[in-house]
Specification:
about 100 residues
């Protein structure tokens, strides 16, 4: 079954909450969506820094907003960092450990 564009995947993990022992579900974007947004933000940031158009600025603002919402951050640098960590975690979980 194919996922629709922008689909999210949910991983359930136990969060260390001290004495409560409460489990929390964490929603994470599909790695391919994260990769696309990271590449878009980096490309647009370079264009804007090189004197890009007003359209480039608007597109960077839109991509930044989306990446920040998905990663739960408020600034582009933090969103990029979180997105890269999430992609790395997803890749390491997908690859079996070889001995």
């Amino acid at each position: 079954m194919r996922r629709p564009p922008g689909a999210v995947t949910v991983w359930r993990s136990v969060v260390d909450t001290g004495w409560t022992g409460i489990e929390a579900a964490m929603i994470m974007a599909v790695p391919s969506l994260l990769r696309e947004l990271v590449e878009r933000c980096e490309t647009l940031r370079r264009r804007v820094a090189a004197g890009g158009s007003a359209e480039d600025v608007r597109r960077l603002e839109d991509a930044t907003y989306t990446l920040c919402v998905i990663t739960g951050t408020r600034q582009l640098d933090a969103a990029l960092s979180v997105a890269r960590r999430q992609m790395a975690r997803a890749m390491s979980a997908a690859e079996p450990v070889r001995s």
